[in-house]
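Entry type: protein chain
Record version: 2
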Amino acid sequence: MAHRCVRKFRLAKPASLDARHFHTIPAHHDAPALPLAEHSTSASGPSSSRRSPLDVLREQKVSDLRSLLSLRTPSPNRVWGNYLELLQFYGSAKVPLDIHQSVLRKCAPPAAHVRALAARRVAAGQRYKEDMLYESRYQRIIRNIRSAGDTPSLSDYHCVLDLFAAVGNHNGAMMVLAEIGRVGLVKDPRTYGLCLQALCHRLTLPVWHLDRPALVDEVTEHCMTILNEMADRGVPYAPVNVDLAFRILKETMNMEGFTMLMRNAYGIDLAYPDRSPLEYWGKVRDAATEVEAQDGQSVRFPTQLPFTLATFNTALDYLARSGNVTKLVQTFEVITNPLPSTTSNPNSFDDEDDEDFGVSNPQVAPYRSPHVQPNTTSFRTLLRGVCDAGHVGLARHYVLVAIAQERQQDYLLLRSALTQPPDELPAPRLSINRNLLLPVFHLANRQKDVELLRWITVRIKRAVRWHRHAIKYYTSTRTRWVESGVYVPKRAVETDLEDDVGSDLPSAASTSRFSSFFSPSSSSRQASATFDASSSSNEDFTTSAIQAEEGQKTFDVDLHLKLLERELLELEDLERHADVVLGRSTQRLKERLGRRVWNSKDIFLRDIGRRTTLPKAVFRENVNFRSQSEVEARQLKERSAKTRERPTWGAPPPLARTGPMGEQYTATSSVEREERPPKSSRES
C-alpha cells in the first residue's frame, strides 16, 4: 500500500505544466497576419507609423517577382509560381498592371523556342501539348487585368498571338482577333500578320488526309475574312502579310482572293493591268473635286507596296498554276513592256460623246504602271504555264524572246568586260539553261511533235555552244584581271551553289501543293523586355510601303564560271537525251507513214497542201528510208574503210564477203523486201 502511494507520488505531474503544450500545432505566419495588422493599425502613438508585417511581406513578394522578371530568360514555371503567391496576398484587383503585363510575357518560353520544340516533336511523330498550359495562363492573366478595371493593350494580345502563330493554333488566333475588335482596340498590320502566320503554320502541320480538304477550306475562309477586313479598314499592307496571304491562297488557287490582294497591295488590276484599279477612280473622284475647289492640287493614289521582281515571279507562278494562260501572258507583257504614262486620256474617242469609257479626271495624278526586267525564273515560270496548257506557238515565241534578251545581255557584258573593272559590271539576270528549255522539250515529247522536237533540239545545241564559248572567254578574262591586279579571287563559291542559286520559286511540294518554300519564318523573334508595339521585333510588320529597291548586283566572275560549268553539264545531258528522243520519234513517224504507203493509202504532203498517194520509191527517197540490207551494207563498208586506214604490221587477213551476209543481197531477197515496208533508220 505504501509502495503504491510512493509510485503515484513520483508519477504525479506538477500543477504548473500545461498538458496542451504536447499537442500544440506549430504556428503559421499567415494565420495571425490579418489580426496583427488590424491590431497594429488600431494602436496609438508611435506604433501607428510602423508598417504591418503583411505590408512588409507584400513588398517582399513584389520585389522578388520584379527581380525575377528582370532576368533575360527566367524560368516560366518559377515566374508563374511567384505570380500565384503574389495573388494570394494582394488579390488580382490590387496587383499593379505592369506586373500582369510582365508575367504575361515571361510565363511562357519565347515563341522561337516553342516553335523549334514543336517542330522536333512533330518530326519524332509526337504532339506538342504544352501550348495548352501556356494558353490557360494567358487566359487567367487577361481575366485578372480586366477584373482590376484595366483593359489589355494591343501588345498584350500580340504576345498571345505570337504563341498561337508559333504552334499553328489558327482557331485561337481568330478568337483573339475577334476579341480585339470587341474591346475597341485599333488593329495594326502586325495583328493581322500574326493571324496569317498561324493560318500558314497550320497548313504545314500533319493532318489526316481525309480531313485536309475541310482544313484547307477553313483556313482559306479565315484568310479571306482577314483580307476583306484589312481592305474595309484601310490597313496598310506589309510585305510579310502579302507573302503569307499568297502562301495560303496558293493552296486552293483562289483567284478572287489573289485578284483582290494584287489590287489592294500593289495597285494592279489583273483585268486592266496597264491602268489603275477602277476602285481608285471611284474613291478619288469626289476627293479630287473637293481639292480642286480648294487649292487646285492633284489627288494621288493610295501608297502601295513596290512591285519587285520577286513579287512578279510569284504572280506568274500563281497564274501558271491556275492554268489561266490569258492572264499569264497579259500580265507578263504589260509588266515587262509597260505603256508610257499620260496625264490625260487619249483623244481618240472625243467625237463619241454618247459613249462612256470610264472615269476621266485630269486632277488625278497619272498612274505609273509597274515595270520589272524578267529574269531566268520569270521565263521559266511563263514557259511552264504555257507548255502545260499546250500552246506551241507561245512556247516558241517566248523561247525566242528569252534567247534574244540573253544574247543582247551577253553581248553588252562581253563588250564592257574589255574596258571596265569587274566591280563596275552588272550581274547577268538571264541565262538559257536546262530548266528554261525543258518545258518546251517536254511539250514536244508529250505531243510527239517531231517538228517542235527538231526545233528545240537545235536551240539546245546552240545553248551548249554558247556556254562553251562563254566559259573560254571568261576564263581568259579572269586570268587577265588577276594578272593586272584589278581582281582578287574570293573564297570558293561551292557553298553558294549548294543553295541552288537563282531558284526563287518553290519546286513541287510533298503530297499537297503547299510548298515547303512557304514556311512561315516570323517565330524567330525574342521576347522583348519592353512592351512597345514599335519595338525591333515588329520591323517586318511595320515596314513602310515606300522602300528602296534592291540594288543591282555586281558581276562575280568566279560565281559566273561555276554557274556556266554547271549549266553546261546539264545542257550536254539534255542534248544527248534530246538526240535519242528525236531519233526515236522520227523513226516511229516514218514507220507509221510507210505502212500507209505500202498499203496504198494516202498521206498528207505539206508542199502540195493535200492528201495523196505516193509510190514506194518516191516515199523512200523523200524520207531517206533504207532497207535493213542497205543499212548493213553501209555499215560493212564503213568498217572496211576503217580497217584499211589502220597501220599494217603484216599481211592483213582477207575480208570475208561470203556467208549469211551475202545471201541478203540476192535478187530474191530484195524483191521480197520490196513487198513490205522496210524498217527505217535515220541517216546519220
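Comment: The mean pLDDT is 76.
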